[in-house]
Each structure stands twice: as structure tokens, then as C-alpha cells.
Amino acid sequence: MFHLLLRTIPRPVLIKLSYLFNKIAPLLLKGDNVQCPVCEKHYRKFLPYGYSGRAKRENVLCPNCLSLERHRLMWLYLKNETDFFTKPRKILHIAPEQCFYQRFRNMKNLDYTTGDLVSPLADVKFDLHHIPFENNTYDVILCNHVLEHVQDANQCMRELNRVLKPGGMAFMQVPIDYGRSHTYEDFAITSPRERELHFWQKDHLRLFGMDYATWLERAGFKVKLLHYANMIGEQNAEKYRLQKEEILFVTSK
User: What per-residue confidence (pLDDT) applies to 47?
Assistant: First the structure.
């Protein structure tokens, strides 16, 4: 019954209610079947999640930190494969996710700046088409599930490349239709309902396809594609509830 109720609650509301879940989830979801590597909590299962335009996904939302599959995948890569958690790094985090924000803010090795057009978590509010920072400023840029929302994704990618230091890393995950070879855009589609049908969400302006790496390369990035969930092993992928088909786009300048 608890899971059926939560299926109807939008994630922004879940975020506001997360303090309550922190208290009741250990009681209602007690167990060791799944683990969130971000907050390191164990549960019998995670919560369901999904917007109305797409099927709800079962067992994916951490009730403590509200991480989803994509957050846990990137966290594991940063933890296992990079010096993100140990070396001094200047970070720009666009549209900071709830599960990462305070953790990254508290890390002593990070010079951490957040940016967004409207988010209350943003240190600096700006339009991603025109980033108000100098060239070659940041060692790492995080900008996940943003580029499907912007008017000109190519311009925003070029701006992110401009402010990234040579040799720096950027993570720009987006929703991808892995059965689609080319990204789908149609600016004649303007109604929220039609956008939800065509682009999976009412505020999406495009649906990226398997040519997403080409978009990044065109903006000046070097791109490495990793099926990282498969690289950490089937048992761990199931424990952390990762999407095995998700491609991690690790980009550099």
C-alpha cells in the first residue's frame, strides 16, 4: 500500500518530504537486498519512480537521499575510477541534484560552485547558453539531465566546453532512446502533452538518440562511452539497482 501511494507523488514533492522518509523508510523497507552507494543505506527495496508520460519504474528511488539509477552510476564511476574525492578540484555543478548537493559541498578538496537558471540550490543563477565565467576555469563539470531542456543544446555544449580546463572532465548525462539512431527535435511541438508523448517529458525539447556522442564531439569534447553498470559486475549492478543499458558519457577537453 505504501508503494502504491508513492507512485502517485511527483519527485519534487518527494524531495520536500524526504526528511519524513528518512524516519519511516528504515521501518517500512527494512532489509539488505539493495544498497545506495551515495548515502550507503541498505533497504529491502527502493521506491518506485516515473513521470506520467512513461511507465513507472519499480525499485529505483533511494528513500533516504533520493538518488536514482543515473546518480548511483555516476557516483560509482567518480568513486572508483577518478580522483574526484581526493584531489583538489574546481567544480561547476549545473542544476545540482539533491542527492549530491550537500555531500559535494562538504567535501574539503572541492572548490564547489553550483549554477542554474532558477534552482534555489544555485550559487549563481544564469542561462546555460551564456555561462558568466572565464575560459578554462573548471576541472570538472557536472550537468546531468539538462541539455534535453534547453533551446539550443549545441550552444550550451560549446559554453560548457569553453569554461572547462584543458584535460578537465565533464559529465553530461541525458535521457536517451537507445533504439533511436538520431536525436529527435521538432520545435513545432509546443504543448506539454505533445512534448510528453514525443520527448518523454512535458518540459523536454528533444529526445537524444545514439548520435549523442557526435553532438558532444561537435562541441569540442573528446568522448568515451562506457557501459559502466556491466563493468562493475552483474551482482553489484543489481544491488545498486543500476540501468544496465545506460551509457556513461565521460567527456574531456
Answer: 87
User: Which grid coordinates belong to 240?
Assistant: 545498486
Residue 205 and residue 183: Cα distance in Å, rounded? 11
Query: Three cell numbers at 92?
Result: 561547476
Asked if residue 138 lies in contact with residue 91, where contact means CB atoms within 8 angstroms, the answer is: yes
Report pLDDT digits (tens) over 216-229: 999 999 999 999 99
CB of 37 closer than 8 Å to CB of 23: no
The answer to whether the predicted template modeling score (pTM) of the entire model surpasses 0.85 is yes
CB-CB contact of 219 with 154 (8 Å): yes
Q: Give domain 69-252's CATH number out of 3.40.50.150, 3.40.50.720, 2.30.42.10, 3.50.90.10.
A: 3.40.50.150
Cell numbers for 135, please give them. 575560459
pLDDT in tens, 196-214: 999 999 999 999 999 999 9
